[in-house]
Amino acid sequence: MNKLTIFWNDKGTAHFNWWVTDRSELAESAIPSLESHEILKADLACMAELAVGRKVELVVSSHDVHFNQVNIPGKAQRHLRKAIPYLLEEQLADSVDELFMAFGTKLPSGDIPVRAIELNYLKRIVEQFAEAEVKLDSVVTDLDLLETPEEGTLVVLKEGQVLVNDSKVGAWQCEQQDFSWLIQKQLNDVQEDDEMPIAIPMKVIAEEEEQYQFFEQNLPAGRFAPLSALVDSVYAYLSGYRIKPINMLQGEFEPKAESSPLKDMLLKVASVAGIVLAAHLIYQGSQWFSLKAESEYLLKERNALWKQAFPGRKVTSSPLRSMQSFLRGLGQGQANGGFLNLLKSTTGLITDLNLIYPTNISYNSARNELRMDIIAKDLRTLNSYRDELKSSGHEVDMSSATQRGEGYSSRLIIRR
């Protein structure tokens, strides 16, 4: 789905920036008031037309958000929203009663990430978007849009701000003029006394080469190995993130599902389909009862015919199996019994129809011999089957084999 990303910046900034993922649609719409990607917050209503049919994501500055983590026992997971404020009460300078807290999924370490923002500030933002008729789908922080590098540091230069995500320290932000001494202090805190300084890999996202060069000149000498990655727009880079940030529209701010003409129509169609399905089930149920009654009637008829054909014998549960057992017991000297015994002893040696496949079987009761036309996978398999028949006590005459496709066909005359 096409997305509209609005970068709200911090509280003290009067403007916001925006970006849409599909630029071609924007060119076709030709909205004159949106020629600039920097708009006053007071003019948010001009985004209403652009927001139609798009997922709207608001990115607030991490300067206005507290980043924390908590660890809660498994039994208390369902009480997260009530428990988290008390766990963070001593870690936050602001009163927890004045903050709204959103949390993400549990990390592999067992910690739960928490984002805390001033409650009234978030309410004002949500109300302002509602008045501008721009429906918010998610509210995230800019630092949550940064991927964590496998090694080293990722830096994004954004209008005098520096967004940082370090593989060891985590995510933080500052003014660009303060970055040099802050990163030097961070290096001093994490470096061991006897540790040799190593140039740390640093990927720098910037829009202009001059911007990157100025940033590089102010880095601590010899401590980083910077690599520039120039982009057309930092906002496009941030809006195209590949991770799943924490959506702060939770609890009372969670977007409510809105009804639409299409949804109403689908509900009506589903209702009609439900009625038809219920009628079908009722009809099938009546058919089942009818078939059950017919089955009981046929069972009685079968038992009556059995007693008529075999008076004095107990009615069996499986007449077919009883008849087969009766034929097997007729003995080899009788026609049916001899045929079944010979058929069983020969076909029982066929374990795989892909190797030996009978195409025709006939029986001569006078000679008590079975004629079997077969197709074998190869000559070796054909001869092996003949030898197995002989070793099991059969007399076997085999006609010469003829190649048939990828296999060989032959006729076996089997006696016992």
TrEMBL record:
<dbReference type="Pfam" id="PF05134">
    <property type="entry name" value="T2SSL"/>
</dbReference>
<dbReference type="GO" id="GO:0015628">
    <property type="term" value="P:protein secretion by the type II secretion system"/>
</dbReference>
<protein>
    <recommendedName>
        <fullName>Type II secretion system protein L</fullName>
    </recommendedName>
</protein>
<keyword id="KW-0997">Cell inner membrane</keyword>
<dbReference type="GO" id="GO:0015627">
    <property type="term" value="C:type II protein secretion system complex"/>
</dbReference>
<dbReference type="InterPro" id="IPR025691">
    <property type="entry name" value="GspL_pp_dom"/>
</dbReference>
<dbReference type="GO" id="GO:0009276">
    <property type="term" value="C:Gram-negative-bacterium-type cell wall"/>
</dbReference>
<keyword id="KW-1133">Transmembrane helix</keyword>
<keyword id="KW-0813">Transport</keyword>
<keyword id="KW-0812">Transmembrane</keyword>
<comment type="function">
    <text>Inner membrane component of the type II secretion system required for the energy-dependent secretion of extracellular factors such as proteases and toxins from the periplasm.</text>
</comment>
<dbReference type="InterPro" id="IPR043129">
    <property type="entry name" value="ATPase_NBD"/>
</dbReference>
<comment type="similarity">
    <text>Belongs to the GSP L family.</text>
</comment>
<keyword id="KW-0653">Protein transport</keyword>
<dbReference type="Pfam" id="PF12693">
    <property type="entry name" value="GspL_C"/>
</dbReference>
<dbReference type="GO" id="GO:0005886">
    <property type="term" value="C:plasma membrane"/>
</dbReference>
<dbReference type="InterPro" id="IPR007812">
    <property type="entry name" value="T2SS_protein-GspL"/>
</dbReference>
<feature type="domain" description="GspL periplasmic">
    <location>
        <begin position="268"/>
        <end position="416"/>
    </location>
</feature>
<keyword id="KW-1003">Cell membrane</keyword>
<feature type="domain" description="GspL cytoplasmic actin-ATPase-like">
    <location>
        <begin position="41"/>
        <end position="255"/>
    </location>
</feature>
<keyword id="KW-0472">Membrane</keyword>
<dbReference type="InterPro" id="IPR024230">
    <property type="entry name" value="GspL_cyto_dom"/>
</dbReference>
